[in-house]
Amino acid sequence: xxxxxxxxxDIDGTLMRTEGAGRAAMARTAQQLFGRPDLFDALSFAGSVxxxxxxxxxxxAGIAPTPRRIGRFRERYVRNLRRLLPVHPxxxxxxxxxxxxxxxxxxxxxxxxxxxEAGAQAKLQRVGLWTPFGAEGGVPxxxxxxxxxxxxxxxxxxxQRARRRGRLPDRVVVVGDTPADILxxxxxxxxxxEGAPALRTLAVETGWAAPGALEAxxxxxxxxxxxxxxxxxxxxxxxx
Length: 240
Ligand SMILES: [Mg+2]
Description:
Layout: E1 5-9, E2 16-17, H1 21-34, H2 50-60, H3 67-84, E3 91-92, H4 96-103, E4 108-112, H5 117-126, E5 142-143, H6 154-164, E6 171-176, H7 179-192, E7 198-204, H8 213-216, E8 221-223, H9 230-238
Parallel strand pairs: 1-4, 1-6, 4-5, 6-7, 7-8
Antiparallel strand pairs: 2-3
The protein binds magnesium ion (MG).
The site of magnesium ion has 9 residues, from loops.
């Protein structure tokens, strides 16, 4: 039987970079709802999950993270993000467009991202990358940062969606720019136990990881970017 590979990409620092639009939208929302634009100043967003960022920032400020308050914040945040994205510089990371083109029709494409789903869509639309993941109006394959606080739940969530769309991958390749991408996907896949697809991990240095930290998370492949690592990347994703 032909192999079915599902490739799950992180967004920020992996597929694209947006010079601070996400953080600016978070700060603006905190200003509008609580008069606290500094609410997130002490938190790092790299490798983080949006839902968890909200819980931690709210708790640190003495604001109870009730589902209603979180929902309201999320809605306002996405609206602000859509407004701010066009006025912030944004670019795809090297090799991303060529790789997605090359993989189209050869593998299933999905996301594992700490972004809320609507935020993920807004960011990818900003650089013209939503179409490969948008499932032609259906449910995109992905684990998103509004569905869980723990990043290790994102890959299992993405697999649930893949199954719902009739895709049963025997291999999952996770592509990310932080140790959290690598470690969390390994932990999430381990929890699925026997019968889980084989996992391959690919780390790219196009994001914000500290020097040496990516190597320490022991990805199966570690490249400067997808362009420079082109041959090894294709071998990891498509090879035996
Ligand atoms: Mg990232």
